[in-house]
UniProtKB/TrEMBL annotation:
SMART domains: AAA. Transmembrane segments: none annotated. CDD domains: ABC_Carb_Monos_I (cd03216), ABC_Carb_Monos_II (cd03215). PANTHER family: CARBOHYDRATE TRANSPORT ATP-BINDING PROTEIN MG119-RELATED (PTHR43790), GUANOSINE IMPORT ATP-BINDING PROTEIN NUPO (PTHR43790:SF4). It comes from the Bacteria. This is Heme ABC transporter ATP-binding protein. GO terms for molecular function: ATP binding; ATP hydrolysis activity.
């Protein structure tokens, strides 16, 4: 099925989100839409999916103009969409979620899910999804939840599939699996619109690349184009894809975690006897596949976990047992992994979000009353300093793109003197231009003498930022290694091998490859 967009324009008041965009997606093609967060990619796809009505322009399917009054019309025309934030009901089963909106009933109005289960099993077998129709969605890993979203579209016979930032919430392993799924869908004749800001992924999977900047198409490229060329098209300037970072100059060790254990309500150990420390002026990156205790570690430091054993000290002061407010006031800055749920109050203004943990203190508050003029002035300054792209600092935070939301959180947390800075998934869902900016700010905080802890499932980011790397697996610390350690070593540790065993395995593999470990003991291959 061929898709064509001609002159699509979408205005929100005076804001032009899409400006006369032309796009052609051929049948059985993976067409990537590349651009910074806020460039207008998701708005364009929401127009295509019937969530927004275009201000101008037309949509054609197989050269026939169509108009959509809502997603149901788009689905009926063969278009399916997997949103960045999944549209699933957590307490429903897979089959119930897939049937939702297209339910069939037996005589008497009883919901009939058997046909849905059958279709789920058929699609799972065809593409190797391994999805149980009767599993509760809330019990599924993020990568499997995404497969459920894809199944929802395929069950409705979608011939054009829109994937909106599909890897933003996936681990590297899940991302590779998604790429395989996309290749299978393409081979089966499905046209795919792949929305992303990740250059490596776009180059790996695309047939055609269209670049959007500030609502306009600024160029197209072949997958063979260099990452430097693509980044420059996205941002409108040359982008340094390698972080220019001086060696760390560690000072006193002021942050210590000793024998830390975190348990859930059932007594299961989510974090098991973890000990680590961070010096002033260094970055410790915590690596691992998502769900191996990283969230519990950062939440324990912030006082968000209920069942905690062991010790966490900052400058000699014990943090275990203190409230979140006390911990923040002690000089801890924290960027949570989910900025929408935990980092921002979406309906509050940008200005208000920039003082969420500061509003009780001078100069933002006087005699118990918030000084709104000071809050507004602070917002104007921070929006400019951190290049937050918004019409006004009085706009609601949930009107911002993901990258700009992340800048607001970072600006708030770095707006006061810190004794410890923790950032969990600091650039998740953030475009290449913003990543460069955010990484520089994190390194600047390190260079100012602050102990910094970064939690990331992106190995590129870990290797870019870290002075030392701690790897967690199943809640246990596999070891702490230098920041310049190899991907192979980190991969073995992320799979559950302690650092010493992982290094030994790598050494043995190197010996075998060099012919120094063989059956005749001569050092020569037989």
């Amino acid at each position: 099925m061929k898709l064509e967009l001609r002159g699509i324009t979408k205005r929100f008041g005076s804001l032009v989100a899409n400006d006369h965009i032309d796009l052609v997606v051929q049948s059985g093609e993976i067409h990537s839409l590349l651009g910074e967060n806020g460039a207008g990619k998701s708005t364009l796809m929401n127009v295509l999916y019937g969530l927004y009505e275009p201000s101008d322009g037309e949509i054609l399917i197989d050269d026939v103009p169509v108009r959509f009054s809502g997603p149901a019309d788009a689905m009926a025309a063969g278009i399916g969409m997997v949103h960045q934030h999944f549209m699933l009901v957590p307490v429903f089963t897979v089959a119930e979620n897939v049937a939702l909106g297209a339910e069939s009933t037996t005589f008497g109005g009883v919901l009939n899910l058997e046909e849905t289960r059958k279709k789920i099993r058929e699609i799972s077998a065809k593409f190797g999804f391994d999805v149980d129709p009767d599993a509760l969605v809330e019990d599924l890993p993020v990568g499997v939840q995404q497969r459920v979203e894809i199944i929802k579209a395929l069950v409705r016979n979608s011939k054009i599939l829109i994937l909106d930032e599909p890897t933003a919430v996936l681990t590297p392993q899940e991302t590779d699996e998604l790429m395989d799924i996309m290749a299978q869908l393409k081979a089966g004749g499905t046209s795919i619109v792949f929305i992303s800001h990740k250059l490596r992924e776009v180059k790996a999977v695309s047939d055609t690349i269209t670049v959007i900047r500030r609502g306009k198409v600024v160029g197209s490229a072949a997958p063979s184009a260099s990452t430097t060329e693509l980044a420059a098209l996205m941002v409108g300037r040359a982008v340094n894809l390698t972080l220019d970072k001086a060696p760390a100059n560690p000072g006193e060790v002021t942050f210590k975690v000793s024998n830390l254990t975190v348990m859930n309500d059932a007594g299961q150990r989510l974090l098991d006897d973890v000990t680590l420390s961070v010096a002033q002026g260094e970055i410790l990156a915590v690596a691992g596949v998502q769900g191996n205790g990283q969230s519990e570690l950062t939440e324990a430091v912030l006082g968000l976990q209920k069942h905690v054993l062991g010790s966490i000290t900052l400058g000699g002061t014990e943090l275990v047992g203190k409230s979140v407010r006390q911990i923040l006031d002690s000089g801890v800055g924290f960027v949570p992994e989910d900025r929408q749920d935990d980092g921002l109050v979406g309906e509050f203004s940008i200005a208000e979000n920039l003082v969420l943990d500061l509003y009780k203190h001078e100069p933002y508050s006087r005699r118990g009353t918030m000084d709104r003029a000071v809050v507004a002035k602070n917002a104007v300054d921070k929006v400019a300093e951190y290049d937050v792209r918004a019409q006004s600092s009085q706009d609601a935070a949930d009107t911002l793109s993901g990258g700009n939301q992340q800048k607001v959180v970072l600006a708030r947390e770095l707006s006061r003197p810190l004794k410890l800075f923790i950032a969990s998934q600091p650039t998740r869902g953030v475009d290449v231009g913003s990543i460069e900016f955010l990484h520089k700010r994190i390194v600047a905080e390190r260079d100012a003498g602050t102990p910094v802890v970064i939690v990331s499932t992106e190995l590129d980011e870990v290797l870019e930022l870290a002075d030392r790397i701690a790897v967690l697996f199943a809640g246990r610390l596999m070891g702490i290694v230098p920041g310049k350690s190899s991907r192979a070593l980190l991969g073995l540790m992320m799979a559950g091998l302690p650092a010493a065993e992982a290094q030994e395995q790598m050494d043995n593999q190197a010996k075998e490859a060099n012919g120094t470990d063989n059956s005749n003991g001569t050092g020569v291959q037989p």
